[in-house]
Structures are given as C-alpha cells and as structure tokens.
C-alpha cells in the first residue's frame, strides 16, 4: 500500500469487516484506487459480498464499531441506493471519510460477462447525471486495489475474467464507441432546433448528453476504463487520441448557449462531433450503433 495512505487505516477496516459472514473481499476504489486522488478526496472501499449468506445485522454492528463515533444505523442495505450504486455506509475512521460501497460478487461477475460480450447498458442513477453504465463495474474491477480477500480470491477471479481477452475487452470497446457515437449525433440533432428557438434549458441538456457520449467514445477508443463522469472531461486531455483543447471548446459552447449565441455554440459542438466521429472511424474501422 502506498506510503501516502494513512498508516493503519485499512488495517482497521479489514479487522472490523473481514470477519462478517458473507463478506468476500475489501478493496480500495475510486480515485484512491486509480491513483489520481486529490488530497481532500474521500476513501472509497468496495465491500464485495455474497448475497445468500451476508449477515446484515453483523455488518451493521461491524460498521458501528469501525466508525469513530460508533453511530447506529450506518448501513444502507443492498438496493437502498438504487440497483447499481446498491448500498453501503458513510463512515469516519481515524477522522477520515471512508465510504463503504456494497458490490455483490455474483452480479459483478455477470456484468463483466455482459461487457465482454459487448452488451452495454445505461440506467438512471442519482449522482450520475449522464447515467450509470454497466461498464463502471468493469472499471471498478480493473482499478481497485485489494485490501483483503477470503479463500475464494473473488477479486482475483473477477480481474482474470475481465482481462481474459486482453487488458481492455475489445467487444466492449466497439459497443461503447458505436452506441455513444450514435447518441451524440442524435442529441445534437434534437438539440439544435431547441437552441435556435431559445430553449436554453433543453439545448444545454442535449449538449451535455452529446459531450458525455463523446467522453465515452474517446475513453473506449483509447482503451481507458471510465469509472465516473466526475473529472472525465478534464481527463480527456490525458488521452493520446482526442480533439485538441476539447474541454475549453466545450466550455466555450456552453457559455455561448447561455448568452443566446445558439448558432455559434452549435457550430462549435458539431465541429467537435466531427472530430470525435473521425477518431472512432479511424481507430475502430467504422462503428455501428
């Protein structure tokens, strides 16, 4: 574990949670797992469990014992935060924010299988304004840093499955690039008329969808796993293949829309779309929705 991480913090997490019946693995995730966290970033811990044997009262008690203030009712059980974010707890350990995120081992395995087969889904989820892609589970699996696993070594198994066809699943790459190239084009087409009519609210929504779709395409083209919309647009500048100064150009288009300069804004967005689509075409040899 990196020397920049608080000494003893994860030892305490493992000490309190590893013995709970049904807990299969614990992993550092989020920006800390990726290695690009800010100094003030929370610590996200993936708590991988087996649904059929998870002891929820024991887990709640373990979280209470781990938490600095030993608060009651910390556990949000599976499903409480929606079908994808699932559940978990916001704890403080040694004065630091440690967010526990529940992940069911069997479901993660099934989702990785879908990603390998090129079956990409996206669903509404609070906190994910673009939407929650099933490919996020693949990204979490790729980037997480195991803290503890039981004898089944479930995280090792999930990673081996994810990388069974290479570092980045080729059919997931094609599916992401194809689906979101189409969505970006559709969003721009539907938003243009609203923008020119002065419906800034709707037009900005369509622009946001198009930009979010481009980000999905570009990360896929570059075989870079994408875990969250947060920071994803600034992250484009770290990709080897991407339009120049994309973040600044998108910001300019947003500002123009807000100022009522719809024609100029949409020209900027359409030019960006042409560059993203050309990258996808050149890299993947043509993609279809």
Q: How many β-strands, per DSSP?
A: 7
Q: What is the CATH topology classification name of the largest domain? A: Beta Polymerase, domain 2
Task: Tell me the domain tally.
Answer: 2
CATH homologous superfamily descriptor of the largest domain:
Beta Polymerase, domain 2
- Following the backbone from N to C, one meets helices and strands in this order, namely HEHEHEEHEEHEHHHHHH
**CATH class category label of the largest domain:** Alpha Beta
Rg, alpha carbons: 21 Å
Q: What portion of residues belong to β-strands?
A: 5-15%
What would you call the shape?
elongated
pLDDT below 50 for ≥5 consecutive residues: which ranges? none
As laid out across the biggest beta sheet, the strand order is: 3-4-2-1-7
Counting H and I runs of at least 4 residues, what is the number of helices?
11
- Mean pLDDT score, rounded? 94
- The structure class reads alpha+beta
Distance from first to last alpha carbon: 42 Å
Helical fraction: 40-55%
CATH architecture of the largest domain: 2-Layer Sandwich
Q: What about the largest sheet?
A: 5 strands, mixed
């Amino acid at each position: 574990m990196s020397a920049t991480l608080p000494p003893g913090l994860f030892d305490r997490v493992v000490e309190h949670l590893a013995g709970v019946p049904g807990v299969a693995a614990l992993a550092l995730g989020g920006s800390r797992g990726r290695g690009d966290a800010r100094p003030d970033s929370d610590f996200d811990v993936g708590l991988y469990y087996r649904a059929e044997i998870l002891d929820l009262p024991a887990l709640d008690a373990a979280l209470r014992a781990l938490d600095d203030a030993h608060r009651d009712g910390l556990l949000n059980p599976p499903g409480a935060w929606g079908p994808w974010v699932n559940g978990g707890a916001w704890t403080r350990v040694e004065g630091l924010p440690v967010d526990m995120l529940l992940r069911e081992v069997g479901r993660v395995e099934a989702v990785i299988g879908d990603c390998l087969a090129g079956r990409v889904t996206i669903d509404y989820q609070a906190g994910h304004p673009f939407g929650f892609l099933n490919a996020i589970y693949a990204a979490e699996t790729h980037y997480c840093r195991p803290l503890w696993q039981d004898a089944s070594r479930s995280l090792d198994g999930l990673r081996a499955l994810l990388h069974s066809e290479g570092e980045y699943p080729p059919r997931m790459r094609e599916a992401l690039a194809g689906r979101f190239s189409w969505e970006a084009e559709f969003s721009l087409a539907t938003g243009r008329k609203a923008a020119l009519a002065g419906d800034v609210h709707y037009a900005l929504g369509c622009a946001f969808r198009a930009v979010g779709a481009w980000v999905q395409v570009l990360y896929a083209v570059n075989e870079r796993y994408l875990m969250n919309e947060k920071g994803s647009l600034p992250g484009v500048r770290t990709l080897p293949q991407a339009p120049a100064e994309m973040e600044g150009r998108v910001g300019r288009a947003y500002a123009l829309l807000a100022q009522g300069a719809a024609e100029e804004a949409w020209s900027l967005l359409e030019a960006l779309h042409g560059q993203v689509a050309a990258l996808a075409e050149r890299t993947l040899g043509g993609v279809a929705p």
